[in-house]
Design a protein that fits this description.
four-stranded antiparallel β-sheet; seven-stranded mixed β-sheet; mainly beta
Length: about 110
């Protein structure tokens, strides 16, 4: 099982980014998927979860609205649309299911 994230980068406060995660080695359409992030010097924290059907979602309090999780099961893709980014959103963002993790993609938001 392998996940590879992309889409991170440097953005000014108030800007937007769309993160991608592609999975292989598993039946992607049958597993719930999550986004996590690890801010510099802090522990990793959960951001959002999406059910295998792509309809049921849950979010960390405070990110619902600016962030949207979605998926494309046909192409084994997971997305995280992030709007109104703030410096506090600076972190390495990783996708996850069960015990499998990607290496992450760096998001840096300048003030």
């Amino acid at each position: 099982v392998e996940f590879v994230e992309s889409g991170g980068g440097l953005v000014k406060g108030g800007g937007s980014l769309r993160l991608f995660c592609i999975g292989c080695g598993l039946d992607f359409s049958k597993v719930g998927m999550r986004w996590y992030r690890q801010p510099p010097g802090k522990e990793r924290e959960w951001v959002a979860t999406i059910h295998p059907n792509g309809v049921i979602t849950n979010y960390k309090p405070g990110v619902l609205g600016p962030f949207t999780i979605s998926r494309d099961n046909t192409n084994r893709l997971l997305f995280l649309e992030m709007n109104d980014l703030e410096p506090e959103d600076t972190a390495v963002y990783s996708c996850n299911t069960q015990t499998y993790w990607g290496k992450g993609t760096q998001v840096t938001v300048s003030s």
